[in-house]
Every structure is written in C-alpha cells, then in structure tokens.
Design brief:
The chain is an alpha+beta fold and 101 residues long. Helix content is 26%, strand content 16%. The strands form two sheets. A three-stranded mixed β-sheet has the order 1-2-5, covered by helices on one side. The radius of gyration is 15 Å and the shape is globular. The model has no long low-confidence stretch (mean pLDDT 84).
C-alpha cells in the first residue's frame, strides 16, 4: 500500500441528498467555493433540472429515474498524468456496485 493512502479522507462524508437542484456539479462547486464542502463530500439529487454532461452536453433526467451525483475529490497526490486513472477507478467501482443489483 502506498503510504499517502492512509492519510486521504474517505469518500461519502458528508452525503447530502437534494430533492431538486439545477446541477449537482454546480451545487458542489458552489459549496466548495463557499468553504462548506471538501474532499469526500457527496451531493445527490433526486431531480436535476439543468445537469451537465461531458464536453458541454446537457444531462436531462426525469425525477426518480437516474442517479445524479457529484463527489468532491481533491486529486492530490496524483499528478496531472495520473488523474484520468481516477475516472477509470470510479467507473469500475460503480460497475462493481451496480452489478450486485
């Protein structure tokens, strides 16, 4: 195990469920900028009215039919060339979780 891994706080604390929000990503960024959220914070919405997808695409989701969630992650200590690995790890973790159901 890499020595710095034991110093990284876990993900999912705190876990905030929002009934309706424009975008979990916008909400999470605003919370970080206001000093109210940091590494590990999760924001989940039961309904998003103006979600964002990759490359400027809009993410439309009907209430109760999707999982709309943003997780605040401080990519330290990964260098810029390793940060895409974080996306891969998250995708694999989601797959492992959802294949159980």
């Amino acid at each position: 195990m890499l020595p710095y891994l034991s110093t990284i706080p876990p993900l999912g604390q705190p876990f905030t469920v929002l009934p309706v929000v424009d975008s979990t990503n916008n909400y999470a960024m605003a919370q970080v900028q206001a000093g109210k959220a940091g590494h590990g914070s999760v924001f989940m919405a039961l309904e998003q009215t103006a979600g964002k997808g990759q490359r400027g695409k809009h993410w439309l989701s009907a209430s109760g039919e999707n999982i709309a969630m943003s997780i605040v992650v401080d990519p330290y200590p990964l260098n810029i060339t390793q940060q895409q690995l974080l996306s891969f790890a998250v995708a694999l973790a989601c797959y492992d979780l959802f294949k159980k159901y």
